[in-house]
Design goal:
single chain, about 475 residues, Aspartate Aminotransferase, domain 2, four-stranded antiparallel β-sheet, 17 strands, globular
């Protein structure tokens, strides 16, 4: 496999020439129809090249992955599953989906993989409904006499709807680091289920398994959700499975953020969710470094229900994105990906250490995954003020709630940082330490304006100084080196 142009390592000259020709030609075609779109695409590349991207959920896909999405596979309807489509002429889509599923099964050691979800949220919805269909619908039908589905009365269906919509879900709270699809009330997951959340220890910020077990015993959920979007530590999934088994719950793990660390064998043993979860969901971008999309990995008893994701939850599959997933998963099976995943985790440690040495406050006091969650209240700022001040200085982050956040989910009191993207560019421990120094420089020189939780001011010269330093770091680690548009 040729070296990837996102990396600083020099790729073969023929690969550079081919990629350049492909992208120039593609943009010229787009430009002939709608020049504003071609211009925005070129500008996005320039912006990504010129920014310290520390958003934990973002990465840079390889040019092979990106090119795969721009094809006539986009033009096919393919509702159904491999070999069982509702449209004719899907033999090539069958090949694409089969290859993607094969790579995912081998990469994660999963018995069954469904590669159609368009996003992580879609993957979670497929998982929820598959669990409901497997755990609830069949017993519900038995309760009304196990008659053929076409023979059920409206009253029977109403009883089933009530039963399906009154199941219990226990997931990590949003401010503790969970995701909005883990039962957050404004999200559909919080409306589908009678839900309750578990948090973290108020002192340490760490997951308290005894408290989770106690909540599960008291609440008796049908589904116990593990996983996170802003928790900077690892989880023992063997323990979570024990808790689920004790109360008869299905364990569902959302590994969207850390799938790359699982694929890269950084998370193994009890920290690998796939052997322990009944159903595991993930995105294919973030730390996995593929196209935007999702996967559902399932134990055999859930496979049939998961495969009904379309039309149960999803619209038609996106064959061009499934093809790009296949390419990204093939890349993740290469030895180089394991080295990348280790660097992601090592770089997060270096970033955390850089903050701690400079007196910054971190949620849980550090990290052992790819996420660093910075509490900005010590700088007198809200998360929104900090996010904006950093953006002015050429550093792209996102504000994030912290446990028991006094500023709520909109303004927040934290900044979430992640290492996957800049590790892809070639950053190492020294560069991440320098990034921590620049972030502390900005936040130290930022101040709120009046009583506003959004407005702020920066000391004169701060933005210019930090932008210049960020530019120097980025120039030493170019994005897609050799690609000129």
């Amino acid at each position: 496999m040729p070296a990837d142009l996102t990396r600083t390592a020099s790729p073969p000259i023929e690969y550079v020439d081919t990629a350049n020709a492909a992208y120039r030609a593609a943009l010229q075609v787009v430009e002939s129809v709608e020049p504003r779109i071609a211009a925005a695409t070129r500008k996005e590349l320039a912006d990504q090249r010129d920014s310290l991207k520390l958003i934990a959920s973002e990465n840079y896909a390889s040019l092979a992955v990106l090119l795969t999405m721009g094809s006539w596979l986009s033009d096919k309807y393919a509702e159904g599953t491999i070999g069982h489509r509702f449209y004719a002429g899907c033999q090539n889509v069958d090949t694409v989906e089969s290859v993607a599923a094969e790579h995912a099964r081998e990469l994660f050691g999963a018995p069954h993989v469904y590669v159609q979800p368009h996003s992580g949220i879609d993957a979670n919805l497929v998982a929820y409904w598959a669990i409901l269909a497997t755990r609830v619908e069949a017993p519900g039908l038995a309760a009304v006499g196990a008659r053929h589905v076409n023979d059920l009365s409206e009253a029977d269906w109403e009883a089933l709807r009530t039963k399906l919509g009154n199941q219990r879900l226990l997931g990590m709270s949003l401010d503790a680091g969970g995701h909005l699809t883990h039962g957050f009330r404004p999200n559909i997951s919080g409306k589908m289920f009678h839900q309750r959340s578990y948090g973290t220890d108020p002192e340490s910020g760490l997951l308290d398994y005894d408290a989770v077990a106690a909540a599960a015993r008291e609440f008796k959920p049908l589904i116990l959700v593990a996983g996170y979007s802003a928790y900077p530590r690892r989880i023992n999934f063997a323990t979570m499975r024990e808790i689920a088994d004790e109360v008869g719950a299905t364990l569902m793990v959302d590994m969207a953020h850390f799938a790359g660390l699982v694929a890269g064998k950084v998370f193994t043993g009890d920290e690998d969710p796939v052997p322990y979860a009944h159903v595991t969901t993930t995105t294919t971008h973030k730390s996995l470094r593929g196209p935007r999309g999702g996967l559902v990995l399932a134990q055999p008893e859930y496979a049939d229900a998961v495969d009904k994701g379309c039309p149960m939850v999803l619209g038609g599959p996106l064959p061009h994105v499934m093809a790009a997933k296949a390419v990204a998963l093939a890349e993740a099976r290469q030895p180089e990906f394991e080295s990348y995943a280790r660097r992601v985790a090592d770089n997060a440690q270096a970033l955390a250490d850089g903050f701690l040495r400079r007196g910054a406050r971190l949620v849980t006091g550090g990290t052992d995954n790819h996420i660093v969650l910075l509490d900005v209240t010590s700088f007198g700022l809200t998360g929104r003020q900090a996010e904006s001040a950093l953006l002015d200085s050429g550093i792209v982050t996102n504000r994030n709630a912290i446990p028991a956040d006094p500023n709520g989910a909109w303004y927040t009191s934290g900044i979430r940082l992640g290492t996957p993207a800049l590790t892809t560019r070639g950053f190492g421990a020294a560069e991440f330490d320098r990034a921590a120094e620049l972030i502390v420089d900005v936040l130290t020189n930022a101040a709120p304006e009046g009583s506003s939780k959004a407005k702020y001011s920066l000391a004169d010269g701060t933005a210019q100084r930090v932008n210049a330093a960020a530019t120097e770091l980025l120039a030493a680690n170019p994005l897609y080196p050799g690609l000129t548009l």
